[in-house]
Structure formats: structure tokens, C-alpha cells
Amino acid sequence: MCEDRGHRFAQDNRLKSLYDLHGDRSGDTPTSIRRPKATLRDDYRYPLSNSPHLLPVDLHFLRFCGANGIGVDLLTDHDLDAEGIQALQCYSGLFTGSHPEYWSPRMMAALDQFLDGGGNLAYQGGNGFYWVVAIEGALMELRRDASDSLWTSPGGELHMALSGEPGRHWEARGRPTQSFLGSTYLMMSFGPSRHYKRLPGSMHGEFAGVFAGVDAQPIGDSGIVLGGAAGYEVGPI
User: Fold this and answer.
1) Is the dihedral of CA 162, 101, 213, 225 positive or negative?
2) Cβ contact 228:192 at 8 Å
């Protein structure tokens, strides 16, 4: 629906994503990392919010790490799905990217084992851990139910062809993000982003170390996505 050059390229070449429909109005359930993706650019701006989105935001985080001498290793969704907990065992902390929306059961199982073993998770997104997907090689598959406004898989087609797993979103599978993040996706908004305020309980005790060296108050009253720390797709904490 967007009119930027990346989306126009996709439309002109009939490139489909998991947000699109086939000619018979059925949903496009598989996608591939091998298809051309003209919006995967460091200068990409999402037309609906006129702000950086996905790759540009992740690169901004990596530039911050580089400028501050923070070493990081990169792990893709496909790596985590293929290697499971083995991909995480030598680390004590895991940062998500800016929009970690799609998680396969194998990825979620690896994350559970990591957290149960004392690992730490820093969640840097607003609509993360949302859809159940299946991953096989270069393919990823998604099945939407009636809770989604884009398209709905017929009742007999809610299981993934790649894995046989039931689809839908993780909350419908009994895994709401509140159970391990303490927050959940609430809404999409293209208005000005908001900042965070620290609550009194964060000033001392077991949470104080999380904010060591952070003197700013409020936190995130400016930013590259809609002007603040929390915007676009957000949830309450």
C-alpha cells in the first residue's frame, strides 16, 4: 500500500510478503530469505511513520555499541532455530533486534532453556514474540487466525505445512509475553513517541544495577523513531 521506491519495486515485480494476498484472496503463508527485498536498506524510512524501521534501527544500535567499545555477536533467527540452545550457551546476555516479531517453537524452546539457566534477556521491541512461525532452510511460514485484520487462514489450515505445528500467535498458544517479559504488545500508533519514567522501586534494591550509569530522567525523550523511546508499536510494562 505504500508509495516509496522499495514498495513500488515489489509491486511492479509482483513480489509478495506475509502481509499479502494471492489472486484468490487467500493469504500468502510462506516467505523466503532469498527473495529480493528492496526495503532492506540502511536509508529505508517506513512511509506510514516517516521514520527508520527494522534494519536502519538495528544498525543504529550496532553503531552505538561500536562507538562505546561494546562487543557483540550476531545471531539470526535461522541460526537460533537450527542450533537451539547450543547457539546461546556461551553467552550470559541476549539482546533482541528492534522488531523480533516472529518466533518458531524451536527458537522459543531455546530461549526458555537460556532463561531457565540464568541467562539475561534485553527486549528492544514493541511487538515481539508475537507470531508462531515455522522455519525450514530459506523458508518461513505463518498462519494467521481471525484475530488478524489482514487475512485469515481457513479453519482447517491453521497448522503449518513445514512443521505440522499449530500456527496463530503465541498468546493463543498459551505463551503470552507477560509470562516472561512482564509486558505485552498493546497497540500501533503513528503519533509522537513517548519517554520512560523510572518508578521509585528502580532506584534501589535488585533493580538498581540495571540502571547503573544512567542518570537521565526521563529516559528517551528524543529518538530517531517518532521522536522518542516508545512509539509505533508499544505495550505497557
Assistant:
1) positive
2) yes
Preceding peptide of 218 cis, ω within 30°: yes
Domain parsing of the chain, residue ranges: 186-237
Rounded distance, CA 230 to CA 124, Å?
10
SS3 93: strand
Provide the pLDDT for residue 206: 85
Which ranges of the chain have pLDDT less than 50?
A: none
Radius of gyration of the chain measured on its C-alpha atoms = 19
Strand residues in the chain grouped as ranges (E): 30-32, 45-46, 51-52, 93-95, 102-103, 120-122, 131-136, 139-142, 187-194, 230-234
Q: Could you identify the residue written with the cell 505463518?
A: 142
The residue with cell 546476555 is 93
Amino acid symbol at 101: E
Residue appearing with cell numbers 523480533: 100
Q: Could you tell me which of 95, 98, 49, 50 has the C-alpha nearest to residue 75?
A: 95
Record the cell numbers describing residue 156, joined without a space.
Answer: 482447517
Taking residue 58's Cβ as centre, other Cβ atoms within 10 Å add up to: 18
Q: Where does residue 69 fall: left (phi above 0), alpha (psi -120 to 50 degrees), or beta otherwise?
A: left
